[in-house]
Amino acid sequence: MGKFNELEYQVKGIDDKNSQIAFVKCLAKELLKDEKIEVVHVLTPNREHADITVDSLYAGKHVMCEKPMAKTAEDARRMVAAAKETGKKLEAGVKVLD
User: Fold this and answer.
1) What is the pTM of this model?
2) Taking a C-beta distance cutoff of 8 angstroms, is the pair 56, 31 a contact?
3) Of 64, 68, 65, 14, nearest to 46 (Cα)?
4) Nearest-CA neighbor of 41 among 94, 91, 87, 97?
5) Which of 66, 25, 73 lies closest to 46, judged by CA?
6) In the list 21, 26, 62, 67, which could disulfide-bond 89, CB 3.0-4.6 Å?
């Protein structure tokens, strides 16, 4: 079973939504230690985007974050500053409609 399949299985066993988020954040920090992972896609609840992005950048990963980039301008500036400081790429994805 891969790391992500194991994560999904364990999260489904937790009933409380806040406990699920806490568990995922804890496991995400462990995944960031894996040198084989080069890019992190942040597809979490919006309030979690900034912290996970900054942690990922400082762990040496490039980051693709779904929109909205952050909940506040201060969080967005923090994300950009971390990307500049680490030299890693940060992209905020926006779907363009046809």
Assistant:
1) 0.74
2) no
3) 68
4) 91
5) 66
6) 62
DSSP β-bridge partners for residue 90:
63
Residue carrying structure tokens 């974050």: 65
**With left for phi above 0 and alpha for psi between -120 and 50, is residue 87 left, alpha or beta?**
left
Angle, helix 49-58 to helix 73-86, in steps of 10 degrees = 10
Alpha helices (H) along 13-72: 17-31, 49-58
Over residues 48-83, the pLDDT tens digits come to 899 999 999 999 999 999 989 999 999 999 999 999
Q: Quote the DSSP letter at residue 98.
A: -
> Which tokens go with 24?
């995922």
| Residue with the two structure tokens 């992500």 | 4
* Cis peptide preceding 45, ω within 30 of 0: no
**Secondary-structure breakdown of the chain: helix, strand, coil percentages, each rounded to the nearest 5:** 55, 15, 35
